[in-house]
Structures are given as C-alpha cells and as structure tokens.
Design goal:
Layout lengths: L6 E8 L24 E9 L6 E6 L7 E12 L7 E4 L5 E7 L6 E12 L7 E9 L11 E9 L7 E9 L6 E2 L3 E2 L4 E9 L5 E3 L4 E6 L7 E9 L3 E2 L3 E5 L7 E8 L6 E6 L4 E3 L12 E2 L5 E4 L3 E5 L8 E2 L10 E9 L10 E8 L11 E9 L4 E9 L2 E4 L4 E2 L10 E8 L5 E9 L10 E5 L10 E8 L7 E12 L1
Antiparallel strand pairs: 1-35, 2-9, 3-8, 4-7, 4-9, 5-8, 6-7, 10-19, 11-18, 12-17, 13-16, 13-19, 14-18, 15-16, 20-36, 21-23, 22-25, 23-24, 24-36, 26-32, 26-36, 27-28, 27-35, 28-29, 29-30, 29-31, 32-33, 33-34
Length: 486
C-alpha cells in the first residue's frame, strides 16, 4: 500500500449469530473435522496402434476410497440390436456408467464410447487394466478395432453412490458440438464431459480446461477427450460446447457425467442478487438480510449487487443476521467487476476483499481471514491473504501478481477457502476471468497457526478506492455469492 494515499473503504459483510453460542466471557476454539470437495488427482491416457481387440490403460496409484473413472472410445462397433452386437468389456471391479453410439442400436457405429467407474477399497500402486472388444458376449470372439481412452483418479467422491446423473448425445461434422446438460441433484457435484471422435484429431472445451485429448493410429482412428469442473450448486449444468483442432471435425459422441461428493457442502450464505431495490441489498437468497450502514450507495438491479463508491464515502457495513451464516471449514465463490481503472497514476488501486471466519460474536470486525484482490491503474492485478486478530491486521502471504490484464466491466471469479484448525489451518484463493477456465492451482495459499481464528464465522465483501480518484463514482458489481460449510 502507498502510505501517502488515503484510502476510502466501503465494507459489506454477511454476519450471523451461531446457534448454541459459547458465553462471550469464556470463549473457546471450535473443533470440526473438515471435509474436502471432489478433486482430480491425475489422469493417464492410452491408444491402440493398429486394429486390435484390447485396450490397456495404466491407472494412477490410489488410496482407499479413491474413485477411478475410465473412458473408452472405439471405432466400428455393432449396436446392441444387431445380429451380433459388439461389447466393450471391462476388467473385474469396474461398472459401466453409460455407452453412447453415434448410430442406432441396429447399426454399426462410426464411433462408440463407454464410461466406467471403480471404487478403490484399499491403497494400491499403479496398475494396468485391460478392456476387450467382444462379439455377442464378453466371453465371445474378439473384435479388432481402433481405440483410445483414459483413466482419471478422483478424491472426495461418494463411495457408495459415486455417480449422480449422466446423459449422452451424438453428432456429425456439421452438427452443433455440445455434450448434453444434466441436472445435478446435490451441491458440490463434479462434472465430467467426455467426447469420442471417429478420427484422430484434437478436441478442446469451451470455458473449462481440457483434461486430455488422445488419438489412436489406424485406418479407422479414434480420439478420446475430456474436461472437468466443479459445480457448487445442484441444478442444470447447461450444454458443454467443444471444438475440433486443425485436423477437422468428424462423427462424434458425447457424455456428461456428474460425480456425487462424499460430503455435500452446507450452504451458509447464497445470493444471486436477482431482485430490484435501491437503498440497500435486501435479503440474500440464503443467509438473511444484508444490513448496510449507509444504504444510499447500495442497490440491486435485478441481477447483481451494486456499490457506488463516492469521493466522500465513509465505512459501510452490511450484516446478514441469520443464525446459519457461521461456518468453520468454509469455502466461498463470487463474481465481481469494476467499471473503471483507478486514475491518478499506475500505482493507485481499487480493492475487492472477501472474508472467511469473520467472528463478530464477541467483537465487531476484530477477527477474520481476508482475501484481497487489487486492481491497479496500470491494469495489473494482484492477490494476497491477510488476517486480523484482536483488531491487529497482518499479512499471511506475499502479494502475488496475476497473469491477467484488467478490463473494466469484465467479470472475474474469486474462490477462497479456510479449512482446518491450528496449528494447520489452510487458507487459499484464486482469481480468474469468467470467460476462461478455472485455474487448477491456487494463486495464494498458506498454512496458518492461529488459535484465535479457530472459530466459526461469516463472510462478506469489502471494497476500497483511492481518495485521489478523479472520476466518481467507482461502481463495484458483485454476483453469485456463495459461502459454504464443509
């Protein structure tokens, strides 16, 4: 921070009072075993060289409870209603999720794909699993074909019901390239998109990171490709668009598969800001009303929450007093944008901050973790994690510059977490443009030993602009606020 620059802060919080509070005169740290979201461990791909009747895929090493998802793509297989149907036969322990052909069951498909699931009962080193292509039954004659595929390892998946929902689709080189939408039934699902192509090509996915794209080599070659992403709330995933590389499009099949979490996160605060109102933000969808100390700068416009920072602003605080707003092992996600860069020089900055474990049960705003994003006049952005204990602030991490150039009005996403208790509380955050895939790494992270922050707390926003700003107001826009307990 430039010490010569006066900062005008605007603060919005969601604060609740926990049920069964401890006495304010005899507080004690809280203990709750954290649960973790579904996370991708690693993936390994495989492909055939020539036309053969088996596909061998090496799986990553596993721990007990890990879930493996296999994806197998093959060319020229008969459908189930033909005189001699062709099967994709899995090794022992694997269960089929779904098979999708690009032609009717009474025809021979140009490309077919099938997905499978395996739950590891115990830790095991890397192992190779073999899928076979058979005529009639899995004990029938081998069918030579070209195939490609992969196995991916996931943690945090339900062991008794790993698959939530799934759907399949097929298309041609001239149809829309989309995997189907599914409606997840639980919060915290993890969505996988699979594509199989009747040609060796490259496939990438719109808006999400491509997990793999691998092609086989033969006269009838294939490609297997996949992407994955987390879906915080239950509901439709929307269609998943994908695109082909320079080798061009061909017949394809697609699947969308949603994994169920081992522990469904509990929603503490959620707000889509899908209401109208001036002089405040009204009530969140979950978490109670936002109470602001200076309501004139706050409004909701039917789709977003708006804060207009003005040159003579003082501190503004918003409070949502639902008893369910507090959590200990917490994760947050929100969208934000700012309508202009700071003026007054490249080193001036706007600040957007969010909280975890803001504990106002004993004192007002004296204990919390805070996750900071700064936007500079040079259009650079950086992030940093802070903490405040008994009203004394300190930095938990260094400032980390993002490989992102700020664009006024563009939407960015901010994800943050505070998991565990002292001496090993993990705090971490990442920020990315909404139009780009979510990064797989955290931009700032630390392990913290701070017993005074081993308490459940709420979350919210804090905004700042430099007083040297010439063009007022500065408009901060937020949307899709989510704060969950794990």
């Amino acid at each position: 921070m430039n010490r010569s620059t006066q900062i005008i802060p605007i603060l919005v919080l969601a604060i609740g009072t926990a049920c069964g509070d401890k006495s304010p005169t005899e507080p004690g740290p809280e203990v709750a075993a954290p649960t973790y979201p579904i996370e991708l461990g690693s993936a390994r791909t495989a492909q055939t060289s020539g036309s053969v009747s088996v596909l061998d895929i090496a799986a990553p090493d596993v721990n007990g409870g890990d879930v493996l998802i296999a994806h197998v793509v093959a060319a020229k297989l008969n459908g189930a209603s033909t005189a001699t149907p062709h099967l994709i036969c899995a090794p022992a322990g694997w269960t089929s999720i779904r098979r999708t052909n690009n032609r009717a069951d009474n025809e021979t498909s140009d490309v077919a794909q099938e997905t499978f699931v395996f739950v590891a009962n115990a830790a095991a080193p890397t192992a190779t699993y073999q899928w076979s292509f058979r005529a009639g039954t899995c004990s029938g004659a081998g069918v030579n074909t070209s195939a490609s595929g992969a196995i991916a390892r996931f943690t945090g998946v339900s062991r008794t019901r790993p698959i939530d929902v799934h759907a399949g689709a097929a298309g041609t080189s001239t149809s829309a390239f989309v995997t189907p939408s599914v409606a997840t039934t639980v919060n915290g699902a993890h969505v996988l998109r699979f594509v199989g192509v009747s040609r060796s090509t490259q496939v990438s996915f719109n808006g999400v990171a491509t997990l793999y794209s691998v092609g086989s080599s033969a006269a009838e070659s294939t490609t297997a490709a996949a992407a994955d992403f987390a879906q915080s709330l239950a509901g439709p995933t929307q269609d998943g668009a994908f695109r082909f590389g320079p080798a061009g499009a061909h017949e394809w099949v697609g699947q969308t598969v949603a994994l169920r979490p081992l522990h469904e996160p509990k929603i503490l605060i959620r707000d889509s800001f899908s209401r109208m109102g001036a002089n405040g933000w009204g009530a969140a969808n979950v978490g109670g009303p936002w109470s602001v100390s200076s309501s004139g700068e706050f409004q909701v416009d039917g789709s977003t929450g708006v804060v207009d920072a003005v040159g003579d602003s003082s501190v503004y605080i918003g409070v949502a007093r639902a008893p369910t707003a507090y959590g200990l092992n917490v994760a947050g996600l929100t969208a934000f944008s700012v309508d202009r860069v700071p003026d007054g020089g490249p080193h001036r900055f706007h600040t957007i901050q969010v909280y975890a474990r803001r504990n106002d049960r004993l004192t007002d705003g004296d204990n919390y973790y805070r996750f900071r994003v700064r936007i500079f006049g040079s259009r650079t952005m950086d992030v940093r994690i802070e903490k405040t204990v008994k009203a004394l602030p300190s930095f938990v991490t260094d400032s980390v510059r993002l490989a992102t150039t700020f664009a006024p009005g563009a939407r960015y996403l901010l994800r943050w977490e505070a998991i565990g208790t002292s001496p090993a509380t993990t705090v971490r955050m990442r920020v990315w443009p909404e139009a780009e895939p979510e990064p797989t790494t955290w931009h700032a992270a630390a392990v913290v030993d701070e017993r005074d922050l081993d308490y459940a707390g709420t979350s919210g926003y804090r905004f700042q602009s430099p007083s040297v700003q010439v063009s007022w107001p500065v408009r901060f826009i937020v949307d899709d606020f989510l704060y969950t307990q794990r």
